[in-house]
């Protein structure tokens, strides 16, 4: 339980519903965009529905929710911070991840443009880019040692991320301890990209 935190349940693909729910929920100083889908398909088998759903959630929802929240921040005249949860998959091609890798790469660039345009309003925007995170979904998808071995073998620290690894990085980027950090991607990948 977190006092003062209100949970909104809304279909992120329904822009009108999101506008109504998020618009009425402010005022905001901080935002973490963490919703995502991963419909893994080989490139030659990518379906239009998988593409559209991934674009709607992994990219469009972040853009839209961030617009609503940033407009409120600007109207209040308060500084703010936005952290978008991306992925190491935005930086490295992964088999069967054509859509996921692409939408996360688009999210990284969106975050940079947001940082550039919102900076004059004292709103910082960054991404965190984790490796596989051992959430419930992560454990289901990556607990098979045969499947996970190839990925873990490419991570110098030799393990996947835990939820706290990501949360602590997000907290840093939301805090005043990162007051001069905007437009950056913080890799939480155990060194995957250097291997």
Automatic annotation (TrEMBL):
Keyword Cell inner membrane: no
GO MF assignments: carbonyl reductase (NADPH) activity; L-xylulose reductase (NADPH) activity
NADP found in the keyword field: yes
Highest rank taxon of the organism: Eukaryota
Biological-process GO terms, alphabetical: glucose metabolic process; xylulose metabolic process
Gene3D superfamilies in UniProt: NAD(P)-binding Rossmann-like Domain
Keyword terms of this UniProt record: NADP, Oxidoreductase
Pfam families, per database record: adh_short_C2
InterPro entries from the UniProt entry: L-xylulose/Carbonyl_redctase, NAD(P)-bd_dom_sf, Sc_DH/Rdtase_CS, SDR_fam
SUPFAM superfamilies: NAD(P)-binding Rossmann-fold domains (SSF51735)
PANTHER family assigned: D-ERYTHRULOSE REDUCTASE, D-ERYTHRULOSE REDUCTASE-RELATED
Subunit-level organization: Homotetramer.
Entry similarity comment: Belongs to the short-chain dehydrogenases/reductases (SDR) family.
Name used for this protein in its record: DER reductase
Species of provenance: Urocynchramus pylzowi
Gene: Der
């Amino acid at each position: 339980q977190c006092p003062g935190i209100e949970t909104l349940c809304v279909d992120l693909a329904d822009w009108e519903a999101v506008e109504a729910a998020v618009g009425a929920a402010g005022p905001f100083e901080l935002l973490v965009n963490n919703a995502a889908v991963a419909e893994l398909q080989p490139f030659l088998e990518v379906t239009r529905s998988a593409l559209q759903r991934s674009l709607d959630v992994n990219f469009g929802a972040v853009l839209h929710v961030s617009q609503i929240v940033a407009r409120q921040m600007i109207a209040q005249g308060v500084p703010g911070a936005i952290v978008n949860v991306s992925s190491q998959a935005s930086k490295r091609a992964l088999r069967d991840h054509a859509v996921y890798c692409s939408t996360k790469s688009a999210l990284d660039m969106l975050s940079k443009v947001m940082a550039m345009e919102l900076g004059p309003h004292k709103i910082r925007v960054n991404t965190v880019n984790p490796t596989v995170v051992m959430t419930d979904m992560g454990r289901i998808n990556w607990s098979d040692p045969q499947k996970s071995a190839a990925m873990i073998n490419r991570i110098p620290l030799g393990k996947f991320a835990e939820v706290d690894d990501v949360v602590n990085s997000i907290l840093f980027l939301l805090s005043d301890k990162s007051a001069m950090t905007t437009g950056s991607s913080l890799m939480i990948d155990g060194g995957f990209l250097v291997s």
